[in-house]
C-alpha cells in the first residue's frame, strides 16, 4: 500500500490557471473519490498524479518518494479509463498480459497474475474471447484486470463506468468495492456521479474550479456540507434552498423566510450568528415530514407528485416557496391537498449568504 502527498500543486496552460497551490493527503489503502461537475479539475488532478499531466509547480510524493517528474511507467500505478482501450485482435488473456510481456516478465509469472486477476474479477471463462464478443461490463472488467496484473501500488480510475447503462454501473460499482476490500490497495477514483462517490469512497474530495471544497467521509459530506455548493451538488432529489434571515423572538432564535419562521435553537451552529444576519436554509426532502400532530408544523399545499419507484416525491407550496419532500406510499394524496409538515432543523444546513460557507 502507498500513501500520496500533494503539496502546493500548480497546473497552468499558458496564462490559464487550472489548479493553484492544491494540497491533498491520501492515506495508505484509502479509497478516495474526486467528485465534481465537468471542468472542475478532477481528471486534471488524477492525470497529474499519474504523470500524464506535468505540474507547473509544487510536488507529488508516493510514500515520501518524489515522483513529480517521474514517467508514468516508473510511478507504480495502474490506470483504468472511461474507454476500455482493448486491442480488438487480441484475446482477453493477451490483452491483460500485454504490458507484462512487453516488460519481459517470465511466462509462468504472467500466467499466475492473469489467473489471479481473472479469478477476482470473475472473468476466467472469458480469457480466450476477443473484445468484440464481450459486453460493455465485461470489457471494463478486462480493462481493470489489465491494471491489476501490474502489481501497482496505486490504482487510478477515471470515470470507468460512465459508458455503461444503469444496471451495469450498479454491478461494476459493487465489483470495484469488493476489489478494494480484497486487495487493499490505494485507489483514487474520478467521477461526477454522486451515487458512485457515496457508495465507494472512504473519503470524498468535492471539487469546484480546481479547488477542493470539502474533504470528508461520505456521511459528513452529505449531512454536513461545508458550503452551499457542496450541499447543492450532492443529493438526489436535490437539497431545498430558501433565503431568509435570523431574528430573536421571545428569547429564541428563528430563521424567517417570509413564508414561515423556523425555530433554530436546536441547530448545531459551527459559528456564532446574530439577529439580522442573512443566510440560506438548506434542507433535504427526507428531512421534511408529515406533521402528524406536531406542535411545530408548517402548512403547505401539494402542487406536484412524482412517483419514483421506492419513493414518492411531493412538491408543496408554502406561500410562494416551493419545497420538495417525501410522501408515504401508504397514504394517498392528490394535487391541491393541504400538507402540514414538520422540519428537522437538527439535520438542516444554514449557509452564510455572503460567503456560502456553513454556519
From TrEMBL:
It is an enzyme of class 3 (hydrolase). Transmembrane segments: none annotated. Its EC number is 3.6.3.20. GO terms for biological process: carbohydrate transport. The gene is ugpC_4. Keywords: ATP-binding, Hydrolase, Nucleotide-binding, Transport. GO terms for cellular component: ATP-binding cassette (ABC) transporter complex, substrate-binding subunit-containing. One of its GO terms (molecular function) is ATP binding. It holds the Pfam family OB_MalK. This is sn-glycerol-3-phosphate import ATP-binding protein UgpC. It comes from the Bacteria. Residues 4-234 form the ABC transporter domain. Belongs to the ABC transporter superfamily. SMART domains: AAA.
Amino acid at each position: 500500500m502507498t500513501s500520496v502527498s500533494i503539496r502546493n500543486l500548480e497546473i497552468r496552460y499558458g496564462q490559464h490557471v487550472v489548479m493553484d497551490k492544491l494540497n491533498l493527503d491520501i492515506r495508505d489503502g484509502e479509497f478516495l473519490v474526486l467528485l465534481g461537475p465537468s471542468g472542475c479539475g478532477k481528471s486534471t488532478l488524477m492525470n497529474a498524479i499519474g504523470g500524464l499531466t506535468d505540474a507547473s509547480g509544487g510536488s507529488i510524493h508516493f510514500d515520501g518518494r518524489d515522483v513529480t517528474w517521474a514517467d508514468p511507467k516508473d510511478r507504480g500505478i495502474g490506470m483504468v479509463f472511461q474507454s476500455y482501450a482493448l486491442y480488438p485482435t487480441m484475446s482477453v488473456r493477451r490483452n491483460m498480459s500485454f504490458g507484462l510481456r512487453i516488460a519481459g516478465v517470465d511466462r509462468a509469472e504472467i500466467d499466475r497474475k492473469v489467473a489471479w486477476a481473472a479469478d477476482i474479477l470473475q472473468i476466467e471463462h472469458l480469457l480466450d474471447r476477443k473484445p468484440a464478443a464481450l459486453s460493455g461490463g465485461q470489457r471494463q472488467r478486462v480493462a481493470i484486470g489489465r491494471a491489476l496484473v501490474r502489481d501497482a501500488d496505486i490504482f487510478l480510475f477515471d470515470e470507468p463506468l460512465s459508458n455503461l447503462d444503469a444496471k451495469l454501473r450498479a454491478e461494476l460499482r459493487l465489483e470495484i468495492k469488493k476489489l478494494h476490500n480484497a486487495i487493499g490497495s490505494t485507489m483514487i477514483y474520478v467521477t461526477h456521479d454522486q451515487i458512485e462517490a457515496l457508495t465507494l469512497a472512504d473519503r470524498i474530495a468535492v471539487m469546484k474550479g480546481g479547488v477542493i471544497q470539502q474533504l470528508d467521509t461520505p456521511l459528513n459530506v452529505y449531512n454536513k456540507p461545508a458550503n452551499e455548493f457542496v450541499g447543492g451538488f450532492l443529493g438526489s432529489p436535490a437539497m431545498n434552498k430558501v433565503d431568509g434571515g435570523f431574528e430573536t423572538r421571545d428569547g429564541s432564535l428563528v430563521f424567517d423566510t417570509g413564508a414561515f419562521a423556523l425555530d433554530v435553537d436546536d441547530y448545531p451552529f459551527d459559528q456564532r450568528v446574530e439577529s439580522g444576519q442573512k443566510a440560506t436554509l438548506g434542507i433535504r426532502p427526507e428531512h421534511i415530514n408529515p406533521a402528524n400532530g406536531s406542535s411545530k408544523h408548517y402548512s403547505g399545499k401539494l402542487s406536484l407528485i412524482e412517483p419514483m419507484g421506492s419513493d414518492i416525491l411531493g412538491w408543496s407550496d408554502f406561500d410562494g416557496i416551493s419545497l420538495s419532500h417525501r410522501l408515504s406510499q401508504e397514504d394517498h394524496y392528490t394535487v391541491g391537498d393541504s400538507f402540514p409538515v414538520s422540519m428537522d432543523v437538527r439535520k438542516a444546513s444554514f449557509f452564510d449568504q455572503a460567503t456560502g460557507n456553513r454556519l
